[in-house]
Description:
Blueprint: H1 2-19
Amino acid sequence: xxxxxxxxVTDECLFNTLFSTNDKHHDDDGNAIS
Length: 34
């Protein structure tokens, strides 16, 4: 279950990086901004 949750988070981050040109949740390197 935990692995599936981590995979979902990873997929969401990849989706945001690929499809959002102005993502306020990530910096220019794709790192999450808390």
